[in-house]
Design a protein that fits this description.
By secondary structure, this protein is α/β, with parallel strands linked by helices. Helices cover about 45% and strands about 20% of the residues. The protein folds into two domains: about 120 residues, UDP-N-acetylmuramoyl-L-alanine:D-glutamate ligase, CATH 3.40.1190.10; about 130 residues, Alpha-Beta Complex (Protein-Tyrosine Phosphatase, Chain A). Its EC number is 6.3.2.17.
Length: about 270
């Protein structure tokens, strides 16, 4: 179980404790690993784990020490052992720590997993559309983050890797998400917004999103297609800026596909 935030609240519940109780349905006996979570959430997971006969391990982020960090990857130690990942963002170090706890669970269950295999696995892990740099010169990041928790991580990563860079955000969201809160989280990260409508019948119309952003004092324009919005974001970033597509997995896939074609055409 990784980090737990308020998402899919109509189905899972409107508090992190209720959501944790639903996610704990994955416990079926045997070992399990979980994120370093607040005590109230831990208590819920412990109770559910005990009822299922599950041995539960929590990651300890106090044992996590960054060594180097760039858009291309990070080095860190966890519980005194050194590792590398090719994923950007502090949140990915935390996800790696949970993966290492899962390895510890498997070892306790009798699986023989050599340290070298663990290191190779972490180094080779890739996660398309999760703060993925799809183009360079200017950089174009595609991130499928689609709730306030994810977008807070995206905003932190933008500040970390592009602190003094013009940033154009391609933003779209589903209408049933907390899109106003999502937008407000991104506003400090954007010099300009281009808005698109995700490929879903639940999508928020890009024109409504752009109007909201303008009401918040932002420069924002809506486009009729995801490709048109991605092209505009790329052009407006300019040679010294960067662009980032964020807000919906229903938009990220189409934007990524277009940008990969654009990159091939520019070679």
């Amino acid at each position: 179980i990784t980090n737990i935030g308020l998402d899919h609240t109509a189905v899972l519940g409107d508090t992190v404790e209720l959501i944790a109780a639903e996610k704990a349905g994955i416990f079926k006996g045997g070992p399990a690993a979980a994120y370093d979570l607040p005590e109230g959430v831990r208590a819920v997971l412990r109770e559910k784990a005990a009822a299922a006969g599950t041995e539960l391990r929590f990651a300890d982020f106090g044992e996590l020490a960054p060594l180097s960090d760039s858009i291309d990857g990070q080095e860190f130690t966890y519980r005194g052992e050194r590792y590398k990942i090719a994923l950007a963002g502090e949140h990915q170090l935390k996800n790696a720590a949970v993966a290492l706890e899962a390895i510890a669970c498997l070892r306790r269950a009798g699986f023989e997993i050599p340290p070298g295999a663990v290191r190779r696995g972490l180094e080779s892990a890739r996660w398309p559309a999760r703060f993925e740099r799809v183009l360079q010169g200017p950089d174009f990041i595609v991130d499928g983050g689609h709730n306030p928790q994810c977008l807070a991580a995206t905003a932190a990563a933008l500040a970390r890797y592009y602190p003094h860079t013009r940033r154009v955000l391609l933003f779209g969201a589903l209408a049933d998400k907390d899109w106003r809160d999502m937008a407000r989280l991104l506003i400090p990260s954007a010099d300009e917004f281009v808005c698109a409508t995700p490929e879903s019948e639940r999508a928020l119309d890009a024109r409504e999103l752009a109007e909201f952003l303008r009401g918040e004092g932002c420069r924002a324009e809506a486009f009729g297609t995801i490709e048109a919005a991605a092209s505009a974001a790329y052009e407006r970033a300019g040679p010294d800026g960067m662009a980032c597509c964020v807000g919906s997995l229903y938009m990220a896939g189409a934007a990524r596909e277009y940008l990969l074609r654009l990159g091939e055409g520019n070679k």
